[in-house]
Specification:
elongated; three-stranded antiparallel beta sheet; 19 strands; 9 helices
Protein backbone atom coordinates (compact mmCIF):
# COMPACT_ATOMS: atom_id res chain seq x y z
CA UNK A 1 0.00 0.00 0.00
CA UNK A 2 1.26 3.47 -0.87
CA UNK A 3 0.98 6.46 1.45
CA UNK A 4 2.28 8.95 -1.11
CA UNK A 5 -0.56 11.37 -0.30
CA UNK A 6 1.02 11.99 3.11
CA UNK A 7 4.00 13.62 1.40
CA UNK A 8 2.14 16.01 -0.87
CA UNK A 9 3.00 19.69 -0.39
CA UNK A 10 5.57 19.08 2.36
CA UNK A 11 9.27 18.29 2.72
CA UNK A 12 9.09 15.33 5.09
CA UNK A 13 11.23 12.30 4.24
CA UNK A 14 9.44 10.09 6.78
CA UNK A 15 6.89 9.97 9.57
CA UNK A 16 7.58 8.24 12.90
CA UNK A 17 4.32 7.42 14.67
CA UNK A 18 4.25 5.89 18.14
CA UNK A 19 0.67 6.50 19.28
CA UNK A 20 -1.34 3.30 19.73
CA UNK A 21 -4.18 4.42 17.45
CA UNK A 22 -1.81 5.49 14.68
CA UNK A 23 0.07 2.20 14.90
CA UNK A 24 -3.23 0.37 14.50
CA UNK A 25 -4.38 2.62 11.66
CA UNK A 26 -1.35 1.83 9.50
CA UNK A 27 -0.74 -1.81 10.47
CA UNK A 28 -4.26 -3.01 11.42
CA UNK A 29 -2.48 -4.73 14.30
CA UNK A 30 -3.12 -3.81 17.94
CA UNK A 31 -0.07 -3.54 20.18
CA UNK A 32 0.85 -1.79 23.41
CA UNK A 33 4.35 -0.91 22.21
CA UNK A 34 6.05 0.07 19.00
CA UNK A 35 6.50 2.60 16.22
CA UNK A 36 5.47 2.89 12.60
CA UNK A 37 7.87 4.50 10.11
CA UNK A 38 6.37 5.66 6.81
CA UNK A 39 8.83 6.93 4.16
CA UNK A 40 8.46 9.04 1.06
CA UNK A 41 9.76 6.21 -1.13
CA UNK A 42 7.29 3.74 0.43
CA UNK A 43 9.86 1.77 2.43
CA UNK A 44 7.84 1.29 5.59
CA UNK A 45 8.92 -0.27 8.87
CA UNK A 46 7.07 -1.50 11.95
CA UNK A 47 9.17 -1.62 15.13
CA UNK A 48 7.82 -3.74 17.98
CA UNK A 49 9.08 -6.10 20.68
CA UNK A 50 9.35 -9.88 21.03
CA UNK A 51 5.81 -10.24 22.42
CA UNK A 52 4.32 -9.30 19.06
CA UNK A 53 7.00 -10.49 16.65
CA UNK A 54 5.35 -13.72 15.47
CA UNK A 55 1.91 -12.19 14.95
CA UNK A 56 3.36 -9.08 13.34
CA UNK A 57 5.24 -11.15 10.76
CA UNK A 58 2.02 -13.08 10.05
CA UNK A 59 -0.47 -10.22 9.91
CA UNK A 60 1.26 -6.92 9.11
CA UNK A 61 1.54 -6.49 5.37
CA UNK A 62 3.71 -4.01 3.45
CA UNK A 63 6.02 -3.31 6.42
CA UNK A 64 9.46 -4.59 7.32
CA UNK A 65 9.37 -5.89 10.90
CA UNK A 66 12.11 -4.78 13.28
CA UNK A 67 12.25 -6.18 16.82
CA UNK A 68 13.53 -4.02 19.68
CA UNK A 69 13.57 -4.23 23.46
CA UNK A 70 12.38 -1.26 25.53
CA UNK A 71 15.98 -0.17 26.07
CA UNK A 72 16.80 -0.36 22.36
CA UNK A 73 13.62 1.31 21.11
CA UNK A 74 14.77 4.86 20.32
CA UNK A 75 18.13 3.62 19.10
CA UNK A 76 16.38 1.27 16.64
CA UNK A 77 14.28 4.16 15.35
CA UNK A 78 17.45 6.22 14.81
CA UNK A 79 19.32 3.33 13.13
CA UNK A 80 16.35 2.59 10.84
CA UNK A 81 15.99 6.20 9.74
CA UNK A 82 19.72 6.46 9.11
CA UNK A 83 19.71 3.33 6.94
CA UNK A 84 16.78 4.73 4.97
CA UNK A 85 18.60 8.00 4.30
CA UNK A 86 15.99 10.08 6.08
CA UNK A 87 16.77 13.69 7.05
CA UNK A 88 13.44 15.35 7.96
CA UNK A 89 11.07 13.48 10.28
CA UNK A 90 7.42 14.17 11.05
CA UNK A 91 6.22 13.19 14.53
CA UNK A 92 3.08 13.34 16.68
CA UNK A 93 3.08 16.30 19.04
CA UNK A 94 0.75 14.43 21.41
CA UNK A 95 3.67 12.51 22.93
CA UNK A 96 4.13 12.91 26.70
CA UNK A 97 6.96 15.31 27.56
CA UNK A 98 9.28 12.61 28.91
CA UNK A 99 8.76 10.41 25.87
CA UNK A 100 9.33 13.33 23.51
CA UNK A 101 12.57 14.28 25.28
CA UNK A 102 13.91 10.74 24.80
CA UNK A 103 12.77 10.76 21.18
CA UNK A 104 14.39 14.14 20.50
CA UNK A 105 17.64 13.14 22.18
CA UNK A 106 17.88 9.91 20.17
CA UNK A 107 17.13 11.70 16.89
CA UNK A 108 19.33 14.74 17.45
CA UNK A 109 20.88 14.32 14.01
CA UNK A 110 17.53 14.71 12.24
CA UNK A 111 15.27 17.67 11.54
CA UNK A 112 12.08 17.09 13.56
CA UNK A 113 8.75 18.71 12.70
CA UNK A 114 5.24 18.19 14.00
CA UNK A 115 3.07 16.25 11.56
CA UNK A 116 -0.01 15.77 13.73
CA UNK A 117 -2.31 17.76 11.43
CA UNK A 118 -1.26 15.74 8.37
CA UNK A 119 -1.93 12.42 10.09
CA UNK A 120 -5.19 13.64 11.63
CA UNK A 121 -6.61 14.66 8.26
CA UNK A 122 -5.45 11.40 6.68
CA UNK A 123 -7.34 9.44 9.33
CA UNK A 124 -10.37 11.75 9.22
CA UNK A 125 -11.26 10.74 5.66
CA UNK A 126 -12.42 7.14 5.95
CA UNK A 127 -12.17 4.34 3.42
CA UNK A 128 -15.27 2.35 2.49
CA UNK A 129 -13.94 -0.50 4.62
CA UNK A 130 -13.58 1.75 7.66
CA UNK A 131 -17.10 3.10 7.18
CA UNK A 132 -18.35 -0.49 7.01
CA UNK A 133 -16.77 -1.26 10.38
CA UNK A 134 -18.26 1.90 11.91
CA UNK A 135 -21.70 1.01 10.57
CA UNK A 136 -21.43 -2.48 12.05
CA UNK A 137 -20.38 -1.04 15.41
CA UNK A 138 -23.38 1.29 15.29
CA UNK A 139 -25.82 -1.52 14.48
CA UNK A 140 -24.50 -3.48 17.48
CA UNK A 141 -24.92 -0.45 19.76
CA UNK A 142 -28.47 0.18 18.55
CA UNK A 143 -29.51 -3.42 19.09
CA UNK A 144 -27.99 -3.38 22.59
CA UNK A 145 -29.76 -0.16 23.54
CA UNK A 146 -33.10 -1.40 22.22
CA UNK A 147 -32.84 -4.59 24.24
CA UNK A 148 -31.64 -2.80 27.37
CA UNK A 149 -34.11 0.08 27.39
CA UNK A 150 -37.06 -2.29 26.87
CA UNK A 151 -36.46 -3.71 30.36
CA UNK A 152 -36.09 -0.39 32.21
CA UNK A 153 -38.27 0.05 35.28
CA UNK A 154 -38.36 2.43 38.21
CA UNK A 155 -35.82 1.36 40.83
CA UNK A 156 -32.96 0.45 38.48
CA UNK A 157 -29.74 2.35 39.17
CA UNK A 158 -27.62 4.24 36.67
CA UNK A 159 -24.80 1.75 37.20
CA UNK A 160 -27.10 -1.22 36.62
CA UNK A 161 -28.42 0.17 33.34
CA UNK A 162 -24.88 1.03 32.25
CA UNK A 163 -23.74 -2.54 33.02
CA UNK A 164 -26.68 -4.02 31.12
CA UNK A 165 -25.99 -1.90 28.04
CA UNK A 166 -22.29 -2.84 28.09
CA UNK A 167 -23.11 -6.52 28.54
CA UNK A 168 -25.55 -6.49 25.64
CA UNK A 169 -23.06 -4.75 23.34
CA UNK A 170 -20.45 -7.43 23.95
CA UNK A 171 -23.07 -10.19 23.72
CA UNK A 172 -24.13 -8.85 20.32
CA UNK A 173 -20.64 -8.83 18.82
CA UNK A 174 -18.76 -5.77 20.07
CA UNK A 175 -15.09 -6.20 20.95
CA UNK A 176 -15.79 -3.82 23.80
CA UNK A 177 -17.57 -0.54 24.35
CA UNK A 178 -15.87 2.40 22.65
CA UNK A 179 -15.92 4.61 25.78
CA UNK A 180 -17.34 4.52 29.30
CA UNK A 181 -21.09 4.42 28.76
CA UNK A 182 -22.91 7.43 30.20
CA UNK A 183 -26.23 6.83 31.94
CA UNK A 184 -27.81 9.78 33.72
CA UNK A 185 -31.22 9.95 35.43
CA UNK A 186 -33.26 13.04 36.31
CA UNK A 187 -31.25 16.16 37.14
CA UNK A 188 -28.02 14.23 36.51
CA UNK A 189 -28.77 14.45 32.79
CA UNK A 190 -27.81 18.14 32.97
CA UNK A 191 -24.18 16.98 33.34
CA UNK A 192 -23.00 16.21 29.78
CA UNK A 193 -20.36 13.69 30.94
CA UNK A 194 -22.02 12.39 34.08
CA UNK A 195 -20.44 9.37 35.78
CA UNK A 196 -23.12 6.72 36.48
CA UNK A 197 -23.96 6.36 40.16
CA UNK A 198 -26.21 4.30 42.43
CA UNK A 199 -29.09 6.77 42.13
CA UNK A 200 -32.33 4.96 41.30
CA UNK A 201 -34.66 5.75 38.45
CA UNK A 202 -37.97 7.25 39.49
CA UNK A 203 -41.20 7.45 37.53
CA UNK A 204 -41.26 10.49 35.17
CA UNK A 205 -37.45 10.81 35.23
CA UNK A 206 -35.39 11.67 32.19
CA UNK A 207 -32.90 8.98 31.11
CA UNK A 208 -29.89 10.11 29.06
CA UNK A 209 -27.74 7.37 27.50
CA UNK A 210 -24.52 8.12 25.58
CA UNK A 211 -22.90 4.92 24.30
CA UNK A 212 -20.87 3.24 21.60
CA UNK A 213 -19.59 -0.16 20.52
CA UNK A 214 -16.23 -1.05 19.03
CA UNK A 215 -15.96 -3.45 16.09
CA UNK A 216 -12.76 -4.43 14.24
CA UNK A 217 -11.03 -1.54 15.96
CA UNK A 218 -13.61 1.13 15.01
CA UNK A 219 -16.01 3.03 17.27
CA UNK A 220 -19.62 4.07 17.16
CA UNK A 221 -21.22 6.90 19.15
CA UNK A 222 -24.89 7.60 19.89
CA UNK A 223 -26.94 9.49 22.47
CA UNK A 224 -30.63 9.16 23.15
CA UNK A 225 -32.77 10.87 25.80
CA UNK A 226 -35.90 9.17 27.11
CA UNK A 227 -38.51 9.73 29.77
CA UNK A 228 -40.09 6.93 31.79
CA UNK A 229 -43.60 8.29 32.19
CA UNK A 230 -44.69 11.90 31.87
CA UNK A 231 -41.88 14.44 31.43
CA UNK A 232 -41.77 17.95 32.83
CA UNK A 233 -43.25 20.33 30.24
CA UNK A 234 -40.01 22.33 30.20
CA UNK A 235 -38.12 19.21 29.14
CA UNK A 236 -40.68 18.50 26.43
CA UNK A 237 -39.98 21.97 25.02
CA UNK A 238 -36.23 21.49 25.26
CA UNK A 239 -36.41 18.07 23.62
CA UNK A 240 -38.32 19.53 20.67
CA UNK A 241 -35.76 22.34 20.23
CA UNK A 242 -32.78 19.95 20.32
CA UNK A 243 -34.44 17.52 17.91
CA UNK A 244 -35.31 20.26 15.40
CA UNK A 245 -31.83 21.79 15.67
CA UNK A 246 -30.25 18.42 14.92
CA UNK A 247 -32.63 17.65 12.06
CA UNK A 248 -31.99 21.05 10.45
CA UNK A 249 -28.24 20.63 10.67
CA UNK A 250 -28.33 17.09 9.29
CA UNK A 251 -30.41 18.29 6.34
CA UNK A 252 -27.89 21.00 5.41
CA UNK A 253 -24.39 19.73 6.23
CA UNK A 254 -22.32 18.75 3.20
CA UNK A 255 -18.76 18.47 1.96
CA UNK A 256 -17.07 21.82 1.39
CA UNK A 257 -18.63 23.40 4.46
CA UNK A 258 -16.41 24.42 7.37
CA UNK A 259 -16.83 22.79 10.74
CA UNK A 260 -17.71 26.23 12.15
CA UNK A 261 -20.58 26.61 9.70
CA UNK A 262 -21.84 23.06 10.37
CA UNK A 263 -21.88 23.80 14.11
CA UNK A 264 -23.71 27.08 13.48
CA UNK A 265 -26.61 25.33 11.74
CA UNK A 266 -27.75 23.80 15.03
CA UNK A 267 -26.34 26.41 17.39
CA UNK A 268 -28.18 29.34 15.82
CA UNK A 269 -31.50 27.53 16.15
CA UNK A 270 -30.86 26.84 19.82
CA UNK A 271 -29.73 30.43 20.39
CA UNK A 272 -32.84 31.77 18.66
CA UNK A 273 -34.95 29.80 21.12
CA UNK A 274 -33.20 31.33 24.12
CA UNK A 275 -30.96 28.43 25.16
CA UNK A 276 -27.63 29.39 23.61
CA UNK A 277 -25.88 29.54 26.98
CA UNK A 278 -27.14 26.03 27.79
CA UNK A 279 -25.40 24.43 24.78
CA UNK A 280 -21.83 24.53 25.99
CA UNK A 281 -20.06 21.94 23.82
CA UNK A 282 -19.33 21.50 20.13
CA UNK A 283 -21.95 20.22 17.72
CA UNK A 284 -19.86 17.15 16.96
CA UNK A 285 -16.53 15.44 16.37
CA UNK A 286 -14.90 12.87 14.16
CA UNK A 287 -15.23 9.16 15.00
CA UNK A 288 -13.03 6.26 13.92
CA UNK A 289 -10.40 4.23 15.73
CA UNK A 290 -10.75 6.76 18.56
CA UNK A 291 -14.07 7.97 19.84
CA UNK A 292 -12.88 11.56 19.44
CA UNK A 293 -10.89 12.20 16.27
CA UNK A 294 -10.41 15.06 13.87
CA UNK A 295 -12.27 17.08 12.91
CA UNK A 296 -13.85 18.88 15.85
CA UNK A 297 -17.12 20.26 14.52
CA UNK A 298 -17.38 23.40 16.60
CA UNK A 299 -17.35 27.18 16.68
CA UNK A 300 -14.21 28.73 15.24
CA UNK A 301 -12.96 25.54 13.56
CA UNK A 302 -12.10 26.33 9.94
CA UNK A 303 -11.37 22.74 8.83
CA UNK A 304 -13.38 21.98 5.69
CA UNK A 305 -15.57 18.87 5.75
CA UNK A 306 -14.55 16.36 3.10
CA UNK A 307 -16.36 13.36 1.61
CA UNK A 308 -16.14 10.22 3.77
CA UNK A 309 -15.42 12.04 7.02
CA UNK A 310 -17.50 10.47 9.78
CA UNK A 311 -18.78 12.99 12.31
CA UNK A 312 -21.32 13.15 15.10
CA UNK A 313 -24.33 15.47 15.27
CA UNK A 314 -25.02 15.99 18.97
CA UNK A 315 -26.64 19.26 20.03
CA UNK A 316 -27.79 19.47 23.62
CA UNK A 317 -29.43 21.72 26.18
CA UNK A 318 -28.66 21.31 29.89
CA UNK A 319 -30.59 22.95 32.74
CA UNK A 320 -29.08 22.45 36.21
CA UNK A 321 -31.47 20.92 38.78
CA UNK A 322 -33.96 20.12 36.01
CA UNK A 323 -32.18 17.92 33.51
CA UNK A 324 -30.69 17.83 30.05
CA UNK A 325 -31.42 16.63 26.55
CA UNK A 326 -28.86 15.46 23.99
CA UNK A 327 -29.57 13.62 20.74
CA UNK A 328 -26.61 12.22 18.81
CA UNK A 329 -26.35 10.56 15.42
CA UNK A 330 -23.33 9.65 13.29
CA UNK A 331 -23.04 11.07 9.79
CA UNK A 332 -20.93 10.19 6.75
CA UNK A 333 -20.18 13.41 4.89
CA UNK A 334 -21.01 13.33 1.18
CA UNK A 335 -20.65 15.79 -1.71
CA UNK A 336 -24.28 16.88 -1.62
CA UNK A 337 -25.18 16.20 1.98
CA UNK A 338 -24.68 13.45 4.56
CA UNK A 339 -25.64 9.84 5.15
CA UNK A 340 -27.11 9.41 8.63
CA UNK A 341 -25.94 5.96 9.74
CA UNK A 342 -27.91 6.07 13.00
CA UNK A 343 -31.37 4.56 12.63
CA UNK A 344 -32.47 4.38 16.29
CA UNK A 345 -35.76 6.26 16.68
CA UNK A 346 -36.04 9.56 18.55
CA UNK A 347 -39.09 8.77 20.64
CA UNK A 348 -38.88 10.68 23.93
CA UNK A 349 -41.49 8.94 26.10
CA UNK A 350 -41.07 5.21 26.78
Amino acid sequence: MSYSDLFENNKFDAFVLMGESNRFYFTKFETSFGAVIITRDNHNVFITDFRYETEARQHVDNFDIVVASFGEFYGKICDTLTKLGVKTVGYEDSMPVGEFNEFKAALKGFTLKSATDIIDIKRAVKTDEEIGFIKKAQSIAEAALKKSISTVKAGVTERELMALINYNMVLMGAEKYSFETIVAFGANSAQPHHHPSDIKLERDDVILVDMGAKYNGYCSDMTRTFCLGTPDNRLVTIYDIVKKAQEYAIAHIKAGMTCHDADALAREYIVSNGYGDKFGHSFGHGVGIDIHEAPRVGSGVDIVLAPNMVITAEPGIYIPELGGVRIEDMLVVKEGGVEDITSYDKKFII
